[in-house]
Structures are given as structure tokens and as C-alpha cells.
Amino acid sequence: MQEITPRFEFRIFGDGLQFIEQRMRRLAPCEAIDESREIYILGTAATDHNLKIRHGHLESKTLVERDGDLQRWRPSGRWAFPVPREVLRGLSLEPPDRDDRNAGDTIELDGLLARVRPHHGLFRANVHKRRFRFTIAGCAAERDEVWVNGAATQSLALEAAEAGAVTALRARLGLGDAENVAYPLALSRILGLSPLPRENTYEQRD
Q1: Is 72 in a helix, a strand, or coil?
Q2: Helical spans, DSSP H, in the chain
Q3: What pLDDT was estimated at residue 119?
Q4: What's the pTM?
């Protein structure tokens, strides 16, 4: 089995990121454009786990390290449906004391989505992504057009096994002061589960 190297990631969300993409295109050509539809599963607090359903699989990534504000994420599992219930318990998607003898040892996609409800402490975000991919100075880079439950935004990401490569390209693109926001936190903010930065003074700012 091929060893997976966790990568440091820097990601921002907002509008007008096509202008940053123009800087990227001056450094390297766009290598690929692809689209996907994904379902993210969010809790009410923790944003150090990235859980989503993509291409008929449940996928998990875990935040394992920080370097400054950069985050290093490690893919921690990918399971085809039906997924073993013990996997769901390990991901906090099934109560540990659940006693349903007629439920079986696995769960299908429809069954999992049926329990992603606020009264279970779980929330769903339907995310459509269109990615423009680059390789620049040892980093995987992308500018994404993103629709979250139909609402449009944009994202830009830089990833590499070495934090220094991400930091250097980030500065080269003029993004040194931008807040690093991974998908779990960004989606939690969009859905109103996590507060915005400086939320208490939001109405006082221009």
C-alpha cells in the first residue's frame, strides 16, 4: 500500500479570487479543471475532522499538526457503502450506547444521511466544486468555484508536504495576511454553527 504523506494546507474563501488566479497563471499553466459534488458532515464544535461523502465513499481527514497558522491534514480513512457501524462510532456518527439489534452491522448511504439532522448534533452541507488546478514551486495549488447549498463563493488553496513551500508561495501571491480557513470551519461559519472573526463588532465595521 502506498504511504500517504500528510500535507500542510493554506486555504482562503471569498470573492474576487480569480485575480489571484491570474497571478498563479503567470507562474504556471492550469493543468486541469474538474468538478465534483460532495456532502460534508459537520458537528456543532469540532473542526479538526473533515468528514464528507464523495463518489459513493465516506472519507475522513484529521488535523494532525500546526505550523504557525498552517494546518497539516492526514487522510484517515475511505470506506465504500455500506459502512461498518463501528467505523461510524469511531467518527462520532453513531452514539456509542446505541442498541438497535435489528439495525445490522453496516449502514447504507441513505441511512447515514437520515441521521445527519440538527437534533442529532449533525449538519449537512451540499457542496459543488469546480477546481482549477496548478503546480507551482513544489505546491499543489487550486482556485475553486464553490456552491454551498446553492450559495456561491470561491476558495483558493495551497498544499505541500513542507510548510516552508506553502509559506513561500503564499507570500509570493500576496496572501501573507489572509486568514487560513479549512473547509470544516468555513462551512460551519456559512451554516452559522461557528462564529465569524470579530463577530461581536461586526455591525460596527465598514
Answers
A1: strand
A2: 18-27, 85-90, 109-114, 163-172, 183-190
A3: 83
A4: 0.90
Residues 122 and 41 sit within 8 Å (Cβ to Cβ) = yes
Which residues form the domain of 181? 7-198
> In the block, which residue shows the cell 513542507?
162
Type of residue numbered 68: G
Cβ–Cβ < 8 Å for 170, 10: yes
| Single-letter residue type at 159 | E
Residue 37: CATH number of its domain: 2.40.320.10
Q: For the segment 135-184, what is each residue's pLDDT rounded down to a tens digit?
A: 999 999 999 999 999 999 999 999 999 999 999 999 999 999 999 999 99
Model pLDDT, residue 48: 83
